[in-house]
Design goal:
Protein name: Anion-transporting ArsA/GET3 family ATPase
GO molecular function: ATP binding; ATP hydrolysis activity
Pfam family, one: ArsA_ATPase
Structural class: alpha/beta
InterPro entries: ArsA/GET3_ATPase-like (IPR025723), ATPase_ArsA/GET3 (IPR016300), P-loop_NTPase (IPR027417)
Oligomer: single chain
Helix content: 55-70%
CATH class of one domain: Alpha Beta
Number of strands: 8
Strand content: 5-15%
CATH superfamily of one domain: P-loop containing nucleotide triphosphate hydrolases
Order of helices and strands: HEHEHEEHHHHEHHHHHHEHEHHEH
Strand order of the largest sheet: 3-4-2-5-1-6-7-8
Organism: Stackebrandtia albiflava
Distance between the termini: 7 Å
């Protein structure tokens, strides 16, 4: 069986040329913990000024970093030995507001903020979170206050959303329909009045389906946002190109589970197609056995012998646990091997399964130490 290449995470985060690390993968595989532990180690071991940006609305990261809460602005993490670490959690509504404020006058911004369509879109529109994650990354890069930015990508059904959704939203905001709405509003003849005069039946149908008020809100929003047309797409493209820069490194995070590995293979191939700098795979929650010479079958055979002799002691319980663990390790090894077979040139690092969830800085340090010391990658 082919053994995977070993991912040296210390060499990655300690390299001054590495300015952005993006942790991506399917939901529930430990991206947030991986991002936080790498950011902490970069600060403490290599003295780098580091900021970690999480998209996960859960409070786990704030609690583990010893912070009461996280918001849209970087907050300094205390008790960091050497270096510095800031942490923040994306607020997509506030980030969208910041984008509008940066590219319109205050009067125009107030008009946009008051628009019901904007209020709905900026908080719930599909792709907004992923787009604003890239906007926030661009803002952090522009400030040039940190040596390293570690990004925890949005939790979603598909890890590809982080790459695809920003472009979809940019196309919508810069799209032909929005331009039509804008030009009709500027010309003094609303597209809606034209529809009413010539296609009254169609207009009534549209009004019933989505509401005339919504149509009006969209038109007003498009007109108010006219000064930023082209800007959304331009910034999305600029950030996309920045992600292709050699100073950026992508880490695909997975767990030894069929769905997670399948998603990791898919995303790895997509990153390669998009010419994104892929550093490797982090395989979280891996199990191992200490007594490698004792197979599951031999352990259960010993249990049966003890039971037959009437000596069902705690030793039998230990053997049962060992047998189950050996079987689990074998299953995980087969599953992980699917990634190695599909992506043989991608280095891997393994993090063992911990007995409890990560709760504080010490736990994060333990995860980072395990990552750095994973010289024995899964086969």
């Amino acid at each position: 069986m082919t053994r995977s290449k070993v991912l040296d995470t210390d060499a990655l985060i300690g390299d001054p040329q590495t300015r952005v690390v993006v942790c991506c993968g399917s939901g529930g595989v430990g991206k947030t913990t991986t991002a936080a532990s790498l950011a902490l180690r970069a600060a403490e071991r290599f003295g780098r000024r580091t900021v970690v940006l999480t998209i996960d609305p859960a409070r786990r990261l704030a609690q583990s970093l010893g912070l009461a809460e996280l918001d849209n602005a970087p907050r300094r993490v205390e008790k960091v030995v050497d270096g510095s670490l800031d942490a923040m959690m994306l607020d997509m509504k506030r980030t969208f507001d910041e984008v509008v404020l940066a590219h319109t006058t205050r009067e125009q911004a107030d008009e946009i903020f008051a628009n019901p369509f904007y209020q709905a879109m900026s908080g719930t529109f599909a792709g907004t979170q992923e787009y604003m994650a890239m906007e926030k990354l661009a803002q952090l890069r522009a400030r040039d206050e940190w040596d390293l930015i570690v990004v925890d990508t949005p939790p979603s059904r598909s890890a590809l959303d982080f790459l695809d959704a920003p472009a979809r939203l940019a196309r919508f905001l810069d799209g032909r329909m929005m331009r039509l709405l804008t030009s009709s509003s500027r010309g003094g003849h609303s597209v809606f009045s034209l529809m009413t005069s010539s296609m009254s039946f169609f207009t009534r149908t549209i009004n019933k389906v989505i509401g005339g008020r919504l149509l009006s809100d969209i038109g007003t929003f498009a007109a108010s946002l006219d000064s930023t047309f082209g800007g959304f797409r331009t910034r999305a493209e600029a950030t996309f190109k920045a992600l292709q820069n050699p100073q950026t490194a992508f880490l695909v995070v997975a767990a030894p589970e069929p769905d997670a590995i399948r998603e990791a293979v898919y995303f790895t191939r997509r990153l390669t197609e998009e010419r994104m700098p892929l550093a490797g795979l982090v395989l979280n929650r891996s199990h191992s056995v200490a007594a490698t010479g004792l197979s599951a079958e031999r352990a259960m055979g010993a249990v049966e012998a003890l039971e037959d002799s009437g000596d069902d002691t705690p030793t039998a319980d230990v053997l049962r646990v060992h047998s189950r663990l050996v079987s689990q390790v074998a299953t995980e090894t087969r599953i992980a091997a699917r990634f190695t077979a599909a992506c043989p040139d991608v280095p891997q690092a393994r993090v063992p399964a911990f007995a409890a969830d990560v709760h504080d800085l010490e736990d994060l340090r333990a995860v980072a130490e395990a990552l750095a010391g994973s010289g024995s990658a899964p086969p």
